Automatic annotation (TrEMBL), chain B:
Keyword Iron: no
Reaction equations catalysed: a quinone + NADH + 5 H(+)(in) = a quinol + NAD(+) + 4 H(+)(out)
Protein's UniProt keywords contain Oxidoreductase: yes
A cellular component term, taken from the record's GO annotations: plasma membrane
Swiss-Prot/TrEMBL keywords: Cell membrane, Membrane, NAD, Oxidoreductase, Quinone, Translocase, Transmembrane, Transmembrane helix, Transport
Any single GO BP term: ATP synthesis coupled electron transport
GO molecular function: NADH dehydrogenase (quinone) (non-electrogenic) activity; quinone binding
Function: NDH-1 shuttles electrons from NADH, via FMN and iron-sulfur (Fe-S) centers, to quinones in the respiratory chain. The immediate electron acceptor for the enzyme in this species is believed to be a menaquinone. Couples the redox reaction to proton translocation (for every two electrons transferred, four hydrogen ions are translocated across the cytoplasmic membrane), and thus conserves the redox energy in a proton gradient. NDH-1 shuttles electrons from NADH, via FMN and iron-sulfur (Fe-S) centers, to quinones in the respiratory chain. The immediate electron acceptor for the enzyme in this species is believed to be ubiquinone. Couples the redox reaction to proton translocation (for every two electrons transferred, four hydrogen ions are translocated across the cytoplasmic membrane), and thus conserves the redox energy in a proton gradient.
Pfam families for this protein: Oxidored_q2 (PF00420)
Originating organism: Flavobacterium psychrolimnae
Topology versus the membrane: Multi-pass membrane protein
Gene3D superfamilies noted in UniProt: 1.10.287.3510
Protein name (database record): NADH-quinone oxidoreductase subunit K
Gene from which this protein is expressed: nuoK
Subcellular location: Cell membrane; Membrane
């Protein structure tokens, strides 16, 4: 056991050490060394994770490590401990694995940035907090990580802090996340007061064996926890920060805002599946929110012209699908999609980064095109990832998305329709992106055209690895023979007897999904290859697509409903209430001042007057004594 | 009992004491000369001392007379300090009229 504790500490602290080194000595180490240290520290974590992964089969109950007693108040006790079970190890695998690849990628991508060491310090800190989030043995340790990743997200979105718009985006992400975090905290408080514990294992026993649980407070706890998940995982109504978060450098978008941090909400709900299973009303809310988010984000993604914005809305949409699965109680399906999504979305983001890199910061797809020849590796890897996300058979996304649709079909037909439409749209906008970026003629400036080049191998190697994973990732959970389901059985006991039956309905559904995806691709092909359309200028967009292009004016609505009134209130408090209060406080001072100023005049130095007052006082005392008798 | 109060009644001492005190008060209020003011204060003090002694005898209690000794000792010390101040004021200002002492105000 001692050895496990040490390795777990290495697993957690290696990225933190990397952070410390980079933050204190990064500048003097030089760019390459700082990047290498940053990458190595994550690779160490990955190796430690692999060690635990290889040992988990022998220990299905998982490893629990208690470092010390953290909080102890009468019968409420919180340990600072780690829980390494199937779920957390799975998450650690792709957090540290994809994290390593993206660190490697960043060495090349960020090489021209003067603050590269700071970038790696933040990335390492992010990995540290993400590991804490995943590995914590109770809700409070998880909360530390939860807040920490939010902080790192803020720091990295505003990494190029000289641009005020980027700073605003960072603030927006932070504030939106705070709203969700409040929900999470309230949920933790409710669970803590109901069961006097926030430990996952104890909670599980307490909740599953509680015969007379308070239904109302259970639902409230689940709902508030879901609000927390909404904030972190960008679901309606708290999703607007994620597209703006694309202000950060592209590796950040790939790591934090696609593959890892945004899946924290799904992790948390899967972790607490025993709680959510008991409150069907909240589950249906989750499912509906997920489906609506998937559809809304997909429609917005249809008309965006910024390559990263398309991917951002695609992420929101895919997260919506995962929440749909969570809401339907199919946690293992959601986890499966988290993993495949991490592969192909990280690949897509890194690919878009490679394109942006080649075009010196150009992100507008209207100024791209024809990059296929200049950037073959980027093109092929992104094509694979796009096929995967569109659900083309044999690629990883096909299996995971298909399972979500399958589950939706069995539970609720309208939700299935919504999810299917979102999937078709996904196929369309992904191939719109591919066609606009890589096909036809180059539409940028001739200077850019001159400099077109494939990215260096540090960028292409992670792309290739991720593309391979995006292709074969589906193997971990083949329909009918799922390794993942078996692996997760100790966490999700309900699964044991829920094997997938592959009948006629399932094959028909699969065929519908595939045809739908191909139709989406076909429409994109007809529009952008056959007709050679290029999206019009911003000013020329009209009608419904203008509404889509402006994201349903949700930001403007939030601005009008929340931001403006709050600003108005603040101004009111500042100008009226606070002025009144300070007038009162200053008034006391002024009155005292005036009284003593007047009193000062009596003390004019005339001894005769003093003596007179003295005698007067004497008389007053004497007469008082007489009267008192 | 050989008591002086048998010959002169206590009320006479009280009247004398009150008259002395009032003389002192009016001296303090009306005179401008610092030494006169000072003397007036001493008269008030001694009026009170007289009353003390008178009542002490009246009540057949020596405490009052003992207390007067203390009060006289303190008054003597006060006179020494007060006169010293007056001397130094006279040296500086050339007069000891209390109206001239306004400058002592901070």
């Amino acid at each position: 056991m001692e050895m496990n504790t040490n390795i777990a500490l290495v697993l957690v602290l290696a990225p933190f050490l990397g952070f410390l080194i980079n933050v204190f000595f990064g500048k003097s180490l030089g760019k390459s060394l700082s990047g290498i240290i940053g990458t190595l520290s994550v690779v160490v974590s990955f190796i430690a994770t692999v060690y635990f992964f290889s040992g988990i089969a022998a220990q299905p109950e998982g490893i629990r490590i208690t470092l010390f007693d953290w909080i102890q108040i009468s019968n409420f006790k919180v340990d600072f401990g780690f829980q390494l079970d199937q779920l957390s190890i799975l998450w650690l695998l792709f957090v540290t694995g994809i994290g390593s690849l993206i660190h490697l990628y960043s060495i090349s991508y960020m090489h021209d940035d003067e603050n590269m060491h700071k970038f790696f310090a933040y990335l390492n800190l992010f990995i540290f907090f993400m590991i804490t989030l995943v590995i914590g043995s109770n809700l409070l340790v998880m909360f530390i990580g939860w807040e920490g990743v939010g902080l790192c997200s803020y720091l990295l979105i505003g990494f190029w802090h000289k641009n005020q718009e980027f700073n605003d985006a960072a603030k927006k992400a932070f504030i939106m996340n705070r709203i969700g975090d409040l929900g999470l905290l309230v949920g933790i408080f409710i669970l803590g007061s109901l069961f006097s514990t926030v430990d996952f294992t104890t909670l599980k026993t307490a909740i599953t064996t509680a015969p007379d649980y308070n239904d109302f407070w259970f639902s409230v706890a689940a709902l508030t926890l879901f609000i927390g998940a909404c904030g972190k995982s960008a679901q309606i109504p708290l999703y607007t920060w994620l597209p703006d978060a694309m202000a950060g450098p592209t590796p950040v978008s790939a790591l934090i805002h696609a593959a890892t941090m945004v899946t924290a909400g799904i992790f948390m709900i899967t972790r607490l599946n025993f709680l959510f299973d008991l409150v069907p009303s909240v589950q249906s809310i989750i499912a509906i929110v997920g489906a609506v988010t998937a559809l809304v984000a997909a429609t917005i993604g249809l008309v965006q012209n910024d390559i990263k914005k398309v991917l951002a809305y695609s992420t929101v949409s895919q997260l919506g699908l995962m929440f749909l699965a969570l809401g339907l109680g199919a946690y293992e399906v959601a986890v499966f999609h988290v993993i495949t999504h991490a592969f192909f979305k990280a690949c897509l983001f890194l690919g878009s980064g490679s394109v942006i890199h080649a075009l010196h910061g150009e992100q507008d797809m209207r100024n791209m095109g024809g990059l296929k020849k200049a950037m073959p590796i980027t093109f092929v890897t992104m094509l694979i990832a796009s096929l995967a996300i569109s659900g083309v058979p044999l690629f990883s996304g096909f299996f995971s998305k298909d399972e979500i649709l399958l589950v939706a079909f069995h539970h609720n037909i309208p939700l299935w329709v919504v999810a299917s439409v979102a999937s078709i749209m996904t196929a369309f906008y992904m191939f719109r992106l591919m066609f606009l970026t890589f096909f036809q003629e180059f539409r940028g400036t001739s200077a850019q055209k001159h400099h077109l080049h494939e990215s260096p191998s540090l960028i292409t190697i992670p792309l290739i690895v991720l593309a391979i994973l995006a292709t074969i990732g589906g193997l971990i959970s083949l329909p009918g023979n799922s390794w993942l389901n078996g692996y997760l059985t100790p966490i999700l006991p309900k699964l044991a007897n829920a094997e997938h039956h592959l009948g006629t309905t399932e094959y028909i559904l699969m065929a519908i999904a595939v045809v739908g995806g191909l139709v989406g691709i076909g429409i994109a092909y007809a529009k952008y290859i056959k007709q050679n359309t290029v999206p019009t200028e911003d000013a020329a967009i009209s009608g419904f697509s203008k509404m889509l292009y402006n994201k349903y004016y949700v930001d403007e609505c939030y601005d009008a409903i929340f931001v403006k009134p709050i600003n108005f209130l603040s101004r009111f408090f500042r100008d009226t209430i606070e002025t009144g209060l300070s007038a009162l406080v200053f008034g006391f001072g002024k009155v005292t001042n005036e009284i003593s100023y007047q009193g000062k005049k009596i003390q004019n130095g005339s001894i005769g007057l003093y003596l007179f007052v003295f005698v007067l006082g004497l008389c007053a005392i004497v007469s008082y004594l007489f009267l008192a008798q | 009992m050989n008591n002086i109060l048998n010959h002169i009644g206590i009320e006479n001492y009280i009247f004398l004491s009150v008259i002395l005190f009032c003389i002192g008060v009016f001296g303090v209020l009306y005179r401008r000369n610092a030494i006169i003011v000072f003397m007036s204060i001493e008269i008030m003090l001694n009026a009170v001392n007289l009353l003390f002694v008178a009542f002490s005898t009246y009540h057949q209690d020596a405490q009052g007379q003992v207390f007067v000794f203390f009060s006289m000792a303190v008054a003597a010390a006060e006179v020494a300090v007060g006169l010293a101040i007056l001397v130094s004021i006279f040296r500086n200002l050339g007069s000891i009229t209390i109206d001239n002492l306004k400058n002592l105000k901070g």
